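If you are new to this repository, start here. Below is one unmodified record pulled from the training split, so you can see the exact layout before writing a loader.
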Amino acid sequence: MNRIKTIVLLALAIVFSMPANVSAQENVYQITDDVVVPHTSVKNQAQSGTCWCFAGVGLIEAEILKKYNVEIDLSEMYLVRWAYANKFEKYVRMQGVCNFSPGGEVIDALYAINESGMMTEDAYNGLVLGDQNHNHGELHTVLAEYGKIVNKQHNGKISKAWPNMVQSVLDVYLGEVPATFTFEGTEYDAKSLAEKYPLNINDYVQISAFTNHENYKPYIMPIQDNWTNTMSYNMPLDELMSELDNALNNGYTVGWAQDVSDKGFSRKAGVGVVLEDDIEKIRQSDPKKYKKMSDDEIKASLYKFESVMPEKEVTEEMHQEAYENGQTTDDHSMLIVGIAYDQNGTKYYKVKNSWSERHGMEGYWYCSEPFVRLHTMFFTLNKAGLTSDMKSKLEL
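And here is the target side for that same chain:
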């Protein structure tokens, strides 16, 4: 008994002395980058509901890096502030008959810098209430409730006080905007920094692939967060994916509006996959592996991410159906920065998220080609990243 007790205690000592970051099981997805477009570091949107801006700023920073060879950490909250003020104005002008939310689209960040300029994160981080991370629950509630008050027209008309009130609320929750700031030893204001590294909004485009819209023609995507009514250009799904590859292979990052509510989007594994659920097809993919497993055991293993399992072939019809039934929405925005392959040669897209480096694979997700095909609403990219053939088709 004493010998057994000694062995047990020794084993426990070894377990508890292991570093905290050593997991009981290594990630089964062994993914290797093939193409990585230069880009800036992963950030943390925390509880702000502003993924569109973090993805948009990531795109802008990558464009500045590519065009001017300058790495810059821009303020997301300066652009969020611009968006809130403009959304509020629209909400008032439309007497409350429109969506007022923290959400938006990647291209909104480009609208913001073209209209209002840009600041560095050091100059304006939006953290003034003592919080370490963004939390906009109260900020949004105050603005939303104030919007209802304005639209009630208590004095028989819309008060002229609301623009100043909105700016005051933003000052309280995000901080007052500095008149000037310093970047690399030079003093700027928001406009002059944007003029130093100009990006023309007309150089960017949204592209999508839905069968209920005419191919190669622009249309307004009917989604709530498209509050700017930006046009998207439609094309077949296969061509959309080809354009994504062309952009990445030519050094352009791509903003991605997509759905991450699918159970195949795993925080644990840091991947996005669309697993095959046809038991016979699963067995055929690896007869030796699944020979001794019952059908129920195979079903139970789906989405546990304990092994790399076969995925569905996602067709244009499946993508459209997912959109029609609400399985594919624009509930999140991220930045696609590369192409990668797993140990079986399966293709993935490397995606920069905005949930800090603590989640996924150090802040990145690897989303399989089927996942991107199924859950893409649209891409936002520099027109220069499109093929010549596509630019001709779209008459750009």
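Two things worth knowing about this chain: The chain has 14 helices and 13 strands. The first helix runs from residue 2 to 16.
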